[in-house]
Amino acid sequence: MNLNEFDKTSQVGLYVSKEEHPIFGKKYIARFQHDKKRYVKVLGYVKKDSLTLQKAVRLFEDFRSKVTGYKEEISLEKEKLTKDISENIKISDTLKAIQEENKFLKSLLKNYKKLSPDALEEGIQKIYDLQDLKPYQIELIKLQNWLEKENKRMIIIFEGRDASGKGGAIRRITRYMNNKHYRVVALGKPTETQRNQWFLQRYIEHFPTGGEVVLFDRSWYNRAMVEPIFGFCTPEEHEIFMEDIVNFEQDLVRQGMILIKLYFSVSKEEQKRRFDRRINDPLRQWKFSEVDMQAQDLWDEFSEKKYEMLRRTTSRSAPWHIIRSDNKHLARLEALKIILNSVDYDGRNYSLNFEANEEINISVQRELLQMRKTKDY
Do the two domains 3-71 and 122-373 of this chain adopt the same fold? Predict the structure, then answer.
C-alpha cells in the first residue's frame, strides 16, 4: 500500500484515499504499529458502506482495541463524557416530565392534602368506575328507544339481602335513562286494604305500559324470603306463592312482557362491613333499620329461604340471574350487561364486551351448589 495515495485524518493512524472510486467512493484504512508489528486494514468506503469520518474513527478504535487490548485514554474519556452527558439529558427530560405531570395533577386535585388518602383513593376510583359504565349506559338509552318504538314492556326485579347493592345498581342503571319511560317502584308495608287483596294485586298496579321499563327495588319475592322469616305471612300463604309464581311469570312472558330477575348475592362478611359503615357514617345512618340489625343473626334462615326460592322459582321463561355483589362496581357492570343482552335492540355497539364475567355473573345451578357447600352466600 502506497501512503502517498492517502491523506491523513484527524485521527492518528486513520487514512482516507485521495482519489474517489466512481462507485465505491473514497476508501478509509487503518495503519499503525504495535509490539514491532504493523497492522493495516481496509475499514470501508464512503459510498458503498455509507462511511463517514465519525464512523471510520469508531471502526478504527474498535480494530486497534482488538489488536492492542486497550483504547486510548482520551477515547475512553470521550466515551465516558458522552455517556454522562447522555444520562444527564435523560435525567433532565425525565425530571421535566415529572414536574409537568405533578403540576397537572395538582391543578386537578386542588387542596388534596385536606382529604384523607382513603377518601382521595375512593373518589378517584369512582371516576374510573363511572367511565367504565358510560358506554353501557349509552346502550341502555338505545334499548329504551327500541322498547318505545316496538311498544314493548319491561320489568326488572332487583332482589337480594339487605346491603347487597340493589339501590346503588338501580341508580347507576337509571342515571341517564329517559325518565319519561321508566319508573322505580319500591313498595313499603301493605296497607290493611292491600292485606285483604290478592297478594300480587298491589304489584300489578305498577306494571309498565307499552314502551316503559319498571324497576322493582324488591318485589313480590318478599313473600319468598322476608315475609315468612319475620312472620308477615302464614306458612300456607308462603307455599301458595311458591307454587303459583312460576306460572304467573310464564303468563307475563307469554303475553309479551320482558321479565328480568336479578339477585344480588352478598357475602356475610361484606354485609357486616356495609352495616358497620352505615352505623358509623352520619350520611348513611338513615339506611340502617331494625331489620338490618337482625340480618346477620338470621343469616342461616335467610340462606334457607334463598336456596328454596332460587331452586323453585327459576324457569326457562323467567330465569334468575345471580350477581355476586361484594364488588359493587363489577356487580353493576354485570347487571347492565344482563339487561342489554335480554333483547336484540337496534344500533347495538358490538365493539363493547357483552360477555358475562363468570366470577360475578353466576348461574343458578352454580349458586345452589355453592350454597350446599357453604352458607356464605
Answer: no
Pairing of strands 182-185, 153-160: unpaired
Q: Which residues contact 303 (CB under 8 A, 6 or more apart)?
A: 371, 375, 377
For the chain, domain boundaries? 3-71, 75-110, 122-373
Local confidence pLDDT in tens for the 377 residues of the chain: 688 889 989 888 899 998 999 889 999 999 988 888 888 989 999 999 999 999 999 999 999 888 887 554 445 555 666 676 677 777 888 888 888 888 888 888 888 888 888 888 888 999 999 999 999 999 999 999 999 999 999 999 999 999 999 999 999 999 999 999 999 999 999 999 999 999 999 999 999 999 999 999 999 999 999 999 999 999 999 999 999 999 999 999 999 999 999 999 999 999 999 999 888 888 888 888 777 788 999 999 999 999 999 999 999 999 999 999 999 999 999 999 999 999 999 999 999 999 999 999 999 999 999 999 886 77
User: Rounded to the nearest 10 degrees, how much is the dihedral formed by the CA atoms of 290, 291, 294, 299?
Assistant: -170
| Cell numbers representing residue 230 in the block | 319475620
Q: How far is CA 262 from CA 27, 320, 344, in A?
A: 81, 6, 19
Please say whether the structural domain 122-373 has been given the CATH code 3.40.50.300: yes
pTM greater than the 0.70 cutoff: yes
CATH for the 3-71 domain, from 3.40.720, 3.30.160, 1.10.3210, 3.40.50: 3.30.160
CA–CA separation, 36 and 49 (whole Å):
31
How far are the Cα atoms of 73, 107, 349 from residue 111, in angstroms, in the given order? 55, 9, 40
